[in-house]
Amino acid sequence: MLAPELRVMRRLLKSSLFRLTSKSVPVNSAYEVWSASRSLPTGEILVPGAHRTVSLLNIRLAAIIVSTCAFDFFSHIWSLHPLRTTLMLSLNVVRSVLPAFRGYSQALIIDQLQQLVTSGDFTWSRLINFLMTDVAREVGRRILEGVLETYASVFTTISTPAYMNLCRTSNETIVMDSAKFFVEYAQLEHRVRLDIPTLQDPQIRDLLAESDLFARSFSGSGSFGLLSPLDCIHIISLATEIFSHLLLILSLTGGPVHFWVLLLSLFSVTLPILLTWIRCPEVHSDDTFTPREARAADRQEKMRNLAYDEGHRPEIELFGLGDWILKTWASARKVVLDSEHSRQLQESSILSNLNFSDFFFAVQNIPLVLLLQTSSASLGSLTLYRSSIQSVILASKGLVATCRMVFQGIFLMSAFCAAKDVKPQLQPTEEDAVCYQPCPEGARIEARGLSYTYPGCPEPALKNVNFSLRSGETLAIVGHNGSGKSTLAKVLLRIVDCEGDLIVNGTSIRRYDPFDFHQHMSGVFQNFSKFNSTVRENVGFGRVEKMSSRTTIESAIQLAEAQSLLNSLPYGLRTVLETPGFMQYTGCSPVRQHGLSGGEWQRLSLARAFMRANEPQVDLLLFDEPTASLDALAQSLIFDTIDRISRSPTTGTRTKTVILITHRLSLARRADRVALMENGTITEFGSHEDLLQKDGAYAALYRASL
Ligand SMILES: Nc1ncnc2c1ncn2[C@@H]1O[C@H](COP(=O)(O)OP(=O)(O)OP(=O)(O)O)[C@@H](O)[C@H]1O
User: Fold this and answer.
1) 142-173, pLDDT tens digit by residue?
2) 496 Cα: distance to centroid of ligand 1 (angstroms)
3) Do residues 258 and 404 lie in contact, with contact meaning Cβ atoms separated by under 8 Å?
4) Which of 487, 525, 664, 705 most suits a substitution to test ligand 1, by most atoms within 8 Å of the C-beta?
5) Are 306 and 328 in contact (CB under 8 A)?
6) What is the pLDDT of residue 102?
7) What is the pLDDT of residues 673-704, one digit of tens each?
8) What does R_g of the chain's alpha carbons equal in angstroms?
9) How does residue 226 score in pLDDT terms, banded at 50, 70 and 90?
């Protein structure tokens, strides 16, 4: 918890900084600032991770980000370990002053030695005495410095939160680890809570990609060319180091002449650094890939993945894709290399090729020469001057490089903060949201004018779909390939949004929280998942709270007619299943995995659905081609099981509504209602007998299937 004074101060700082910065930039949220920083004056959009130029607009945007999210972010990080973080910051500042002190005490020793030698009464005993006192004091001081550093590193007495059960070695590691944990957890949370329509939005994808980069910047200083916000302490350390050295240099060069010479010297120190800024072209090398270059980079990566992915290996061999992969990769790689080369040429201006270092070195020696002229100049002060100047040069270079990286990091931070605020598109507003009330006789469904177009597609996959289903009815959806059956399943299961109204149990589906809604249904997707995991997890994912219950998992497996499969597996439920293209490692050796046939995988997907299907709160079951890979006998048994599950075990009355998508018309005819889909819409709807009597497209399809 922050102290109230600190909170007031933070609010004041935030509002004044925001007022100062947002005047000329019309942005309100982290998302808008992030968006604005990606747009180039040419209208192009930067690819995720591209560097932002150091322009006036971007500096303003960076200041807005600092005023809108950085305070909150840092105060959160600080609140994880207030004492440790404060200690870490303080020690870094103290450590950065130490080099100047070190130089100063070295100079003192040199001066005293010089005095001893030049005073005229040098004796060996006086030298030994000097070594025993002054040098020993310096050694003692250094030991103390070392102890301070060690103390800073092993300060581990403060308790760590229980969730951070990681191996600790130093105070800084603890602070960094907790920050890393917080950021990575938040990043994972952003991903997990967003729904498919939100994740399909290209802007959101880019936002999450940059937010990912921000989270990765915590994995180690400077990795991926990024710095985490915690590395900002380097800026403070470097600035303190420069400042302390400058003070020393100033104290050495008294008088107006020396002052101007010192200015000249400092100018010569900073000029090379300034030149590196000027050398930066208006558009930075990494900033803009042209669409062609971005496509080439993408293609190059795809080809690389194809070559490495073992899941694709059989078809790559069967269809002889090796040469094609190599050729495509090579042409894409050439485009990428050419673009990198042309950028390098643009960057290598004449300035970069001029070597001024000798000249600057000479300029920095002018004050040294002047110092030598003065009677007060001692060997110690000369040594101190030289070492301090060198330290200023090094620290200034480090400061510029760190500032640049932090500048980029600020924009990634805006992506991270904006990602936190992205609302899942399917989530109803708080005022609109209602709890799903399951119907004990099965869900009632009414679809009015449902339409859906996949993002980026010109044609809708669903067009004006209308039907209604009473509680406990079974509906079989049939139709040719591509007629829209699976798309309708996704709409009914609230995986994607659609136009029109879908009323379930008397309430628009849009008013249900998708998480709540999904608690009351179960089913199998046409492209169900094959998890690279044990049998227990592959089935238990259907109801994670029962994952540890052997009997629940085994009875679900039994319902899916997969008991004999389980018995044949070498480690039963613990057998790790092999999914194409995924090799699991423990230590350095691959885990022994067990492959399954298509039909066996399908049985496990059914078992997963049955884990939840039996639950009384579930009132809707939807199976999209659940038996496509099963033999005829298994198909019939599974349909019997689905029918049994959808009824009360005591009275036999229907308790769940069932929707079944299938190409097997012999099974579809067992449903209460049949819907025939053509070109994205339902063209015939009724009982099997009604539709046969109608003698339309369904009747023709049915006759053809016999
Ligand atoms: N992710 C997608 N992006 C764009 N278009 C898609 C996508 N998925 C499906 N489509 C298109 O939507 C239409 C309906 O596809 P859908 O999968 O719903 O058909 P289906 O009736 O289930 O086919 P099948 O019987 O082969 O499973 C098709 O034209 C298909 O090309």
Assistant:
1) 777 777 666 655 443 333 444 444 444 477 77
2) 13
3) no
4) 487
5) no
6) 73
7) 999 999 999 999 999 999 999 999 999 999 88
8) 35
9) low
Relative to the CA of 489, which ligand 1 atom is closest?
18
- Provide the angle, in degrees to the nearest 10, between the axes of the packed helices 136-153 and 82-118: 170
C-alpha distances (whole Å) from 661 to each of 33, 268, 626 are 46, 77, 8
Nearest CA to ligand 1 atom 27: 481
The enclosing H or E element of 344 equals: helix 322-347
Our mutation pick for probing the ligand 1 site, out of 454, 525, 625, counting the most ligand atoms within 8 A of Cβ, is 454
End-to-end Cα distance, the chain: 73
Residue 7 has pLDDT above 70, yes or no: no
3-state secondary structure 133-173: HHHHHHHHHHHHHHHHHHHHHCCCCCCCCCCCCCCCCCHHH
- Of 86, 96, 80, 255, residue with least CA distance to 179: 80
- For 540-593, the three-class secondary structure string (H helix, E strand, C coil) is HHHHHHHCCCHHHHHHHHHHCCCHHHHHHCCCHHHCEECCCCCCCEECCEECCC
Instruction: State CA 677 to chain mean position distance.
Output: 40
pTM, rounded to two decimals: 0.73
Distance CA 489, CA 1 (A): 48
Q: What's the pLDDT tens digit per position in 453-473?
A: 998 899 999 999 999 999 999
What is the residue whose two structure tokens read 């006086």? 126
